[in-house]
Each structure stands twice: as C-alpha cells, then as structure tokens.
Design goal:
single chain; 279 residues; mainly alpha; MetI-like fold; 12 helices; 0% strand
C-alpha cells in the first residue's frame, strides 16, 4: 500500500514567496531610514551638544568638557541623582521580589485566577501615568502620608512590578517541568527545589527584570512629580526644572548620562538572554 504524500506548502518550508518579500515594496527602505533617523537623530544631537562649550544648549560654540565638570560638582544635581538612585534601588529590589513570588505562586492558581491576577498586576502598564499619579497621591493622603521619600518608593515599587514580572514569567514558562519533577523524585523538598533548581534557572529573567525595573524607576517623571517633596526631588523632576529656567548644556549632559545607563542595561539584558539561549 502506497502512502500518498502531499507537497509541503512553500511557507511551511521556511521560504517566503518573492511577491511577499518586504524589500519588494517601493519606498520601504526610505521610510525605514526616515523612521530610524527620527528616532535616533535627536539622541545623537543631545550627546553631541553635551560637549558644547557655550552657554546655549543648541548653539554650538566649540568643544568643551566644562559642563560635565559642572554637572559632577553641582550639589543640586548630585542630590537629585542620589534620591533617584535610592528610590530606584529600593523599588527594584522590592518589585523584583514581589514579581518572583507571584511567578512562583502562579502554578497554584486556577487558569482564571492566574489571568485575573496577571491583569491586575499589569494594570500600571495600561493605565495612563497621570491617572496613576493622581490616584496614588489621593491614596497616600487618605492613609495619612504626605508626599516624600516613602510614598515615592511605594509608588515606584507598584509600577515596577509588572516590568519585572514580564521577564521573569517569560523565563519561567520556557522552563522544562521535568527539572523540578526530577529534583522532587530525588528527595528534594519544595523549598530545596525552589532554592537550588528553580531560582538558578530563573536568574537570567530575574536579572533582566530587575534591570528593566531600575531603568523604568530612574526614568519616571509623571508619578514622581505628584509625590516628590522639597527634600525628595528626583533627577527627571530636576531636569524638567532646569528646562523651565532656561536650557543650557548641563541638561544635555544629564540626558546623555541617562541614555548611557539605558544602553548599558539593554546591552546587559541582551547578553544575558543570548548566553542563556546558547545553553
């Protein structure tokens, strides 16, 4: 008896019809270049003008490092940077721990419970930041707190949880359950499985989620603007104040430093992901 074989469709063989190739659409290359230029040219301009020797942010008057020296010796900028780093560090640790605990507990929830809890935790990503800021301010007033460092930490922790959770959960869903079953069969307790098997396997996702949460916290302006007080001004709020007073190259310097931080975090996350993929 002969078995009839059907030809595999062209798309299923991993090839794309020539008529559907993106490079066949006229003007696509030009549109792509314009879009990339619109996205990245402003960043390059900010970096270039951070080395401007003049007193105007966007009028080139020669190469100089003097604004870097002023930024690194400005007491107000240093104070705002310290506040941002402290808030981001505490919020990153707290949000990452909460995200890990949720991911570990996810299997014990029903399908509907998991979907509902995930939607609730992911709400800060969807809800507009203005609404989050007003709601958080109203809540801390309701519980008897005043704007300041502690409300800032609490707010940053709450909206950083979903960013950390996304990376950790993506890593967790890609793990083979056989690892945990094998450890349990060998006599490991539930805590030993979590500590010696699950957490090491989740570590790339945990690190990626923590780095993303840190950058999100350092970059936040809207919610921080509602909750900051005179002694807890974060760096984005201070930069906004500088712009309102008059733009000078120090704003470009601070923006460049934040951009470098984002690039470093992105590179670290990419390297961790690729290393884990090779394993």
């Amino acid at each position: 008896m002969s078995v009839e074989t059907r030809p595999v469709p062209r798309l299923m063989r991993g090839s794309i019809p020539h008529s559907l190739m993106l490079n066949r659409f006229p003007g696509l290359g030009t549109i792509s270049l314009v879009a990339l230029a619109f996205l990245y040219a402003p960043m390059l301009i900010v970096v270039a003008y951070s080395f401007n020797g003049g007193n105007q942010a966007l009028i080139w008057q020669g190469f100089s490092l003097k604004w870097y020296g002023r930024v690194f010796t400005d007491a107000s900028i240093i104070s705002a940077t310290k506040v941002s780093l402290q808030v981001a560090a505490i919020a990153t640790v707290a949000s990452t721990v909460l995200a890990v605990l949720y991911v570990l507990a996810m299997d014990r929830l029903s399908r509907a419970g998991s979907a509902i809890s995930t939607a609730i935790l992911a709400a800060p990503i969807v809800v507009p930041e203005v609404v989050m800021g007003v709601a958080t301010l109203a809540f801390i007033r309701l519980i008897g707190l005043a704007p300041g460092f502690i409300p800032l930490v609490l707010a940053h922790t709450s909206f950083c949880v979903p960013f950390a959770m996304m990376n950790i959960r993506a890593r967790y869903t890609g793990l083979n359950p056989a690892y945990f079953e094998s450890a349990a069969d060998l006599g490991a307790t539930h805590w030993q499985v979590v500590r010696r098997v699950m957490l090491p396997l989740l570590m790339p996702g945990i690190i990626s989620g923590a780095l993303l949460a840190f950058v999100v916290s350092m970059d936040d302006f809207m919610i921080s603007n509602f909750l900051a007080s005179a002694g807890s001004t974060t760096l984005p709020i201070y930069i906004f104040g500088l712009i309102r007073k008059g733009v000078n190259p120090s704003v470009n310097v601070v923006a460049t430093m934040l951009l470098i931080l984002a690039v470093v975090v992105t590179a670290a996350t990419t390297v961790l992901t690729r290393r884990q993929a090779k394993r």
